[in-house]
Amino acid sequence: MLQVIGIILFITGCSKVGDPVDEDNHVIDHSDNIFPVLVVNKPANNQVLNNGDTIFVEGMVSDEKTMYRGRIKISDDGNGFVVKEEFFETHILQTINFNIFYKANVSAMTDYTVLVEFEDHGLNKVYVTLKVKVNP
Asked: Which of 93, 97, 100, 102 has its CA 20 to 30 A from that of 52?
């Protein structure tokens, strides 16, 4: 059986999700002194899950002008390992919706920290730190 997969890619501006970029061709908007609005719908702080459950990190961030960059990180509190990390960058969007996940596989009770942080072109940074516990 032959399977054909086609991909069409349209690039309409400078927005991306993925690895951080070391380039810093960002222009700071010194007139922007209003912080972005960050809403994290999932997970709930201190949420308790079971082995095999998925930690969902969902929400949105918006700015009255334009967003610049952000990061979502899930780390294991016991050993400090980053188990999931996603980077965002844009120069045109006012709103970024995010939805990442990590399926937890533990043999002992494990605490995780979820960090969600974003900043706009005025370098106004907002962040939320949440705790999630996963039982075996």
From this structure: 97
